Amino acid sequence: DALPILNKLFSTVNSAGVQLEQTDIVKANLLNLIDEKVKYGKIWEACENMNNFFERNVRLSFPSTDWNIVDFKKYYEFDGSIFRYESTNKNGINSDDTLIIIEDVNMNDISDYQHPTKNILGEKDRKSEEIYCRSIINFGQLLIHTYRLHLYIEGKEDFEGTFHVNRLIEIFNSLEARKDPNEIKRFFQLLWKVRYLFDKYVIKWITDIDNKTESLELVNFNKNDKGYYSRTKYAKSNSSMLQSVLYFTGDYLRQYWLTTYLGYLLKNHSDSDATNEIHLIKLEEFDNQFSLNDKLTDKDLSYLLLDKEATVDKTINIRTYLELNKGTAFKHYWFQKLEYILWKNWDSTINTQEYNNYRITSRNSVEHIYPQNPENQIQHPQIEDEYLHSFGNLVLLSVAQNSEYSNKSFRVKKSMFRDRRETYDTLKSYYIFQNDNWNKIEIIKHLETMISKIEEHYDAK
Question: Which residues contact 438 (CB under 8 A, 6 or more apart)?
Fold first, then answer.
């Protein structure tokens, strides 16, 4: 009985020295209910390593495939006649006989979940110019997103309870309990599709080998004359910027927007590029619907929006909210969303290096441009809270940037902003520091300008 081990992950080691996690137990339980265990086990295996590109995983899991005749970009659906594997292990024993079943696990050797470490397969076979990636979610999270899509496609309700990888076994209990081999196979086939779409259309952390930094990118890949695939980063795009906003402002452990967006792509990807304008428009639409409703949970909303006919009530008025004087209590989402809107609608005549280098990054500290406790009280006499804590007087920065600015005067902050040569702190800051002075009048003007830009974005949908 798996119930005593819910919300735990396995770190027991089986006789082969393989560390077991909840994903392994779910895999074993599902394979136990179907035939063609090796084939479906290989499909799972190919999807499993999230810190490697899907095509590389497939190459390792299906080594007998003739890659010279395969254009992987066309294999959104698994084709068993194309992707080949050896069905016996080195000892000549059929791999089906070596599958782990839940009864084999020592229930006393269970430990809490550990985040998977970066594990790049086939390292020695890589070319030096190859791109390295790190996923924005782990495999357990991908399984849950896929299972939600599976439930929707099968005409069933979303699973009950919280979306959390520590509940993985419990979440999949219902699929196991139905004991329908064909349904389980459909889930495995869907997992392949979802992993394919995730790799093609969703941002991932890409390492810059030269300066040892990571950035969120959409990646394109093309086949070379040796049957291998080279990858290139797309130029910064509205698509990658909006996905960055969603990643940094969403629930880190869940990323609910992925359920909705991947569900849309399952039906509508049309094999188009990741930066396709039609896909961007749809993602903007989903994002707007999420941001204007505070009555439904993000979990409920993400499942509801899988239905293209669904209507979502707008329970948040942007202007009413942003005209409050909430100070540090403003949701960080609205700062990051504004950055996206400003980036997308940037005046092309302002072609600065700082703008070209700009990225949406993790920011968690709200800074008051007109200082709360000014160092120079002659330049900055105390002003009323409605101006001091207005959205018009605030920017969202990194903690380090915020501490640098501290309670310095507007002119000092402006000078510091202009001295940064690499990129702008924020695009909102750029607009603020176009002013020569900063007082109640400028704060109100800036607030109105920013709210109008946000409203224009929403009204365009």
Answer: 369, 370, 410, 432
